[in-house]
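Supplementary Methods S3. Input chains for the assembly prediction are listed below.
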Amino acid sequence: MALLEVEDLRVSFPGPGGDATAVHAVNGVSLELEPGRTLAILGESGSGKSVTAQAVMGILDVPPARVAGSVRLRGRELLTLAPKQRDRVSGEEIGMVFQDAMAALNPVFTVGDQLSELLRVRRGMSRSGARRRAVELIDRVHIPAAKDRARDYPHQFSGGMRQRIMIALAIALEPDVLIADEPTTALDVTVQAQVMELIAEIQRDSGMGLLLITHDLGVVAEVADDVAVMYAGRIVERATVEQIFAGPAHPYTEGLLASMPRIDRRDEELYAIPGSPPNPARLPSGCPFHLRCPRADDVCRATLPALEPLPAGRASACHHREELLHVSH
Amino acid sequence: MSATDERVLRVENLVRHFPVKGRLPFTSGGVVKAVDGVSFDLRRGETLGVVGESGCGKSTLARMLVGLERPTSGEVRFGDAVVHAARGRDLRALRRRIQIVLQDPYTSLNPRRTVREILLQPFEIHPDALDRKRRLDRIRELLDLVGLDPSVHLDRYPHQFSGGQRQRIGIARALALQPDVIVCDEPVSALDVSVQAQVVNLLERLQRELGVAYVFIAHDLSVVRHISDRVAVMYLGKLVESGPEATLYDAPAHPYTKALLSAVPVPEPVGRGDRRRILLAGDPPSPVNPPSGCRFRTRCWQATETCATTEPPLAGDERAVACHYPLAA
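Predicted C-alpha cells for the full assembly:
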C-alpha cells in the first residue's frame, strides 16, 4: 500500500453558464507516492497541477468546486471524511508549502506566534513549550539567530527566509506527506538552490513523501525520483526521472525538453512547440495536445488516448507512444 | 550574428540613486544605490545579455537606456547624442532609435485599444516616420513579421490573445519605427515554458533579418546564454564581470558568476549527486548600505582584508572582471 494514492481524481468548477461552460481542471488523475520518494508533477499554467495538489490537500472550496474520485492516505479515504476530520488529517498528516510566502503567512503576527499557535492548537502544547519548539523549528530551517527572529513579522524577512518559515510551519506537525507547490518559483536562483537543498535535507531526515508541483524541468531533474507530466488536466506521461530525460514517451514532454535552452551548452535554434496551452474551459476533441503535435493524425483528432502502460513501469497517453519510445532510444 | 564593430550605444559610468524617506517626517533614510557606475558598449546588430538577481538594478538600467529614467550621473550615448541631454525634437528622434519590450504582456498593452490602434500609435507620436497612407500596410507587415495574422488579429483587443501572442504584439510595437536598439527587460519570464522558445526564436530571427541590436535583461541564465553574443553580470548595482557568452559561461572569472552558474538546475538527472554546487550563504545585502570594498565580499568564500577595504575596478576590455582574485580558467 502506497503512502498516498490518488485515483481517477476529477475537479471541475461551474462556469458562468452552468454545466455547459464548466471548467474541467482535473480530468482523471491517478498517482502514487511512497515514503521518502519525490514525485514531481510537471506542467504549465492551466494544466491542473495546482488544482490537483489543492484537491489532495483538501483546501478547495466545495462547492463551487466539484471533486470526484479517491484520495487515500495510508489506505484511508480522505474525500468522504467529514469536514472536521478532513481538516485534522490535512493539517497534521499532510503539510503544504506555497509559492507566495507573503500571502500564505499572516502579516500581523510574528512568525514565532504563528508557529506556537499551531503547536498549541494541534498538539495541545503549553505556551512556553510551544515557544521553545517554535524556536527549534526556525533553527531547523537554518535561519540564523532563531530566538530573535521568532519575534519578527513576515515582512521583516527576505523572500528566501519567508519560504523557510513556511517550510517550518509545514513540517511543524511532522506530516507524512509534504506538498510543495512551486516552492522556489518566486526566488532568485542562488536562493532557490538553498531552499531545494533544505527541503531535500528535511526529507532525508524524516522520510516523508514529497509531492513537488513545478513547471521547471531543471528543478525536476535535480530533485525528483518520479515524474508525472500533466497537460490539460490529465497525466500524459509517467516515468522515473532518468527515463523521462533519457527518452520521453509523449510528444509534449519531448517538445518541452527540446524547447529548453541549456546552461551547459549553446544550441543554434530552439525547438518551439507551436501554439499555446488549451483553455481548460474549451478543450479540443480527441487528444488535447493534437493541435500542437507534429505527430497528430486522424485518430488523435477523434479519440482521446488513455494513459497506457509501457515497458519498465512507465506509461504514456499517446496513440504513438510505442514508436516514440522506439525513436528516442 | 551580424554584429559589426560600430558602437550603437555607449554607456559611461551610469549611476541612479533613489532617495529613501526616513522613519520620521523630513528626515532622510539614505539612498538606494540601484545602479552605481555601469559602463558598456553595444555594437550594431549584437545581443548583450545582462543577468543578475532581483534588486541588482537591471530594470533601472533598462529604464535609463531608453530614457524613461533620468540618471543621477553618467551618460548614455547614441551615436553623437547624449540620451538624457536631448530635448524636444532631438529627444523624439532619439526615442525612435531605442525601443523597449517589457516583461508583462498583460499590463504593457492598453486593454481598451485594438491591435490596430496600439500599432498605429508610434506613428501618431512620430508622424514624420511614415506617410499616413502607408501606415496600415506597415502595421500589417509588422504583424506578419512577428507571426500574427493581420487579416484576423488586427481588430482584436489584448485580452483576446494568449501571453505569447501579446508579447509578439509588444515586439511588433517596438519594431514599428525601425529602431537600432531594443532593450528587452525580462521579455520571456512571464511566459509558459513551451511558449518561451517561440519568442526567443522570433527575437533571433528578427535580429538576423533587421540587424537590430538587443540589450537582453533577464534572470534566467540559460535563456541569456542562448540568445547573447556577450554577457554582463550585475551585482548590487555594478557589473562584476563581462565577456563573450562562451568564455563567461565555460570559464567564469568572478566568484559571483561562478556561484550563480552553479546554482542553475541542470536538466539532466544522470550524475546529479556528483555535481558540485556553490551554495551562497544568505541573500544579497541591501543596496541602501552596500558592503565596503567589494560588494560581493560578504557572500564570497575567498574574501580577504583587501576585499573589505579596496573596491576592485572592472578591469579588462573584451573580457572584464571586477575581482582582486579572479578565478583561473
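The mean pLDDT of chain A is 88. The CA atoms of residues 239 and 312 of chain A lie 9 Å apart.
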